[in-house]
Amino acid sequence: MKLNFNVNGRKRVCRVQGQETLLEVLRDVLDLKGVKNGCETGDCGTCSVIVDGVLVNSCLMLAVQARGSNVTTVEGLSSTGRLHRIQSAFSDEGAVQCGYCTPAMVLAAKNLLDIRRDPTEDEIRQHVSGILCRCTGYNSIIRAVKAASKSGRKA
Amino acid sequence: MKLQVYVPGNETQLLRFLSVRKEKAAIIAGGTHLVPFIRMEKPSFSWLADVSHLSNLRYVRRRKDQWQIGALTRICDLNYPALTKAGYIVYAQVAGNFGGTAIANMATVGGNVAVAATTSDLLPVLLSVDANVSLKSYRKERELKIESLLAGEGRRPDEFIASVNFRVPGERRISLFRKIGRRNASFLALLSVAIFLAYDRKQTITQAGVGFNEIKSHTPGRARNVEGYLQGKVLSKSVIEDAVDRLKLDAPTAPSSEVPAEYWALASRNLLREQLELCVGKMRG
Asked: CA of B101: which chain A residue's CA is closest?
């Protein structure tokens, strides 16, 4: 069936199967490899993307369910070739090690900061809690989100 | 395996579709359970009805002495201030502890009820408030106790869960939820308990509901013996201990692979005691 949707601000039309997930279409059809394939059961959160302003696991969403939606992946954060301020904060705070969870973490941070400009530490921890990181111990990620929040408020 | 997807424009179209396809169709909304199932198992259905866009089924509202929660209400929506204010903090507790943010954003109340898994955080809560499920088919609508639904008097293939509803007894109410699992955040419950108490001015319990994620035959259920004992009592240390002792009458009759009987016996007692003690604090307030 035909799927019409917007991905990173660009209108896309794809042919999809009923059982195909949004994750598969984003990675394999649209070649957006920033969307990571981890567990495919919603446990690890590395496939998280933003659909119509809501953080979702793209492995748990059928592609057809994204019809008419606006989807944002990590590739859509910056169109200027420069890092988005959240990406810069992750880099500055050493919040990236193996990098597998990083795109999802960055998107979760963006989604949170879009809702709340100045979230508490508890809110940050809660918001990223569904994304597993086995390298950083999370603290540097929390620091990065706080730093991005601070720089966003200054901007 | 190829699945056909049907996207109904409204509830009537959905009901008509289900009346024709019956067992050949499954309903998908949040997809948090169904999508992995489709990919890992060989589903017996060949059609999916995608209802995720039917926003008129996404609501939390009060109608006279009843709360109604639409089937497509997302778990994240349960952090609903009016519910909390009415004494049902339990829903906010579920929303705040339900997997990660993305899962809570996607999973629906109807899906949780339909799947009826022991890992569901919502079912103990709905059991504790003695909720009903509203089931709709093309020809009729019926209400069923959620307990009956879980006990096997299930949803028919041409029905869909439209809402869950529960009555609001009295003026004074407490509800609490707690779960334990293998890690601290974003986890599936090994054991969870939800308590609902309505009480009068003298703090005498007029309605008691105690739901566990797993009881007796390894399905979510109510601790009926504890509930019966609490009815008409004022919570005190000795009453709590007696209530906790009665929990053994509601224990699973055989060990499950996930939760050994000894673990259940010990952990469930501690959870129940802890939550009842918290209730005392809140009642005194």
From this structure: A127
Cα gap B29→A73, rounded to integer Å: 22
Interchain contact, A61 vs B35, CB within 8 Å:
yes
Taking an 8 Å cut-off on Cβ atoms, the answer to whether A60 and B32 are in contact is yes
Distance set, CA B98 to CA A18, B44, B103, B145, B256 (Å):
28, 29, 7, 24, 23
The token duo for B196 is: 């609902």
Phi first, then psi, for residue B178 (nearest 5°) are: -150, 140
Query: Residue A51 pairs with which residues in a beta bridge?
Result: A54, A71
Helix axes B261-284, B237-246, angle to 10 degrees: 150
DSSP element (H, E) containing B163? strand B160-167
Crossing angle of the two packed helices A139-154 and A121-128, in degrees rounded to 10: 120
Closest CA to B32 of B139, B107, B94, B121: B107
**102-161 in B: which are within 8 Å (CB) of A?**
102-103, 105-106
**Which has the higher per-residue pLDDT, B84 or B234?**
B234
Q: Which residues of A touch B39 (CB under 8 A)?
A: 19, 21, 40
Task: Kindly state whether B193 is in contact with chain A, defined as any CB-CB distance less than 8 angstroms.
Answer: no
Burial B52-87 (b: 16+ CB within 10 A, else e): bbbeebbebeeeeeebbbbbbbbbbbbbbeebbeeb
Residue with the two structure tokens 């639409």: B70
Q: Does the distance separating the beta carbons of B106 and A19 come in below 8 Å?
A: no
CB contact under 8 A, B101 and A42: no
- Nearest residue, CB atoms, A108 vs list B38, B96, B101: B101
In terms of DSSP bridges, do strands B132-136 and B219-222 run parallel, antiparallel, or are they unpaired? unpaired
pTM of the model: 0.93
> What does the pLDDT look like over B231-263, one tens digit per residue?
999 999 999 999 999 999 988 766 666 778 888
Cα A126 to chain centroid distance, Å, stands at: 15
